[in-house]
Sequence to fold (251 residues):
Amino acid sequence: MIEHFERDRLHHEAIAHEYDDVVVRPRAIGNDLLFKRFARLIRPGASMLDAACGTGHMLMRFADRFDHAVALDHSAAMLAQARRKALERGWSHITFKCEDIRGFVDNSPASQFDLITCVGFLHHLLPADVSGAVAGLARLLRPRGVLLISEPVKIKPDAVPAKIHDWNRRSLAAKTHYSLAVDDPEEEPLDSELLLRTFAPTGLELARVLRSFEIFPHSHPPTVKDRLAIWALNQRYGRAGNVLTLAAIRA
Fold:
């Protein structure tokens, strides 16, 4: 298991300086549309945790609603990118912690965060560890606190609609790659039903569950056509999509 997470950490250390260009920017429109549908559930509060924050795109969305935020990641290079963005915004209310998320969760007192975001992390875990990670994050929520999770999930290869496949094949993401040859981390999409079942013993109520496809713009900056196509394709096909996003609330 140590080797599994060290390989993952080294991968993110190597690609941190290009991560936004390769991963975040091509997904920006889709993520804007997606997380806008969850924004009303996230009320201003005292504290936020962005678990496995990467370069900080969830911090940039929600940290200004909270008096204090913790940005947690096991990669110092990824955290450096998140810290740079916070400084550019003049934010001084974020604490950056370079630490393994599992150790942080296990050693933290319960009921301390009003919002926990955890996006694109659980599929890096070994499958047997997913339920424990969800339970640990749930323990850190205050009453009425929100846990926001978004993860790739398994679908059949032929389940991607032809219109989405053809659109993405000509997209910016298809043309954008890391300049370095790095080993891929050990990760795989989650089983959506198994992920949903992990919430039953946590005491959290699922407030919203959405499926969507990752659909990418053809240009940078994105055109009006890009924005309309990404919205329209997910409106039509998203219910069977390869991304599951959910918000769960502590009673």
Q: What stands out?
A: The mean pLDDT is 95.
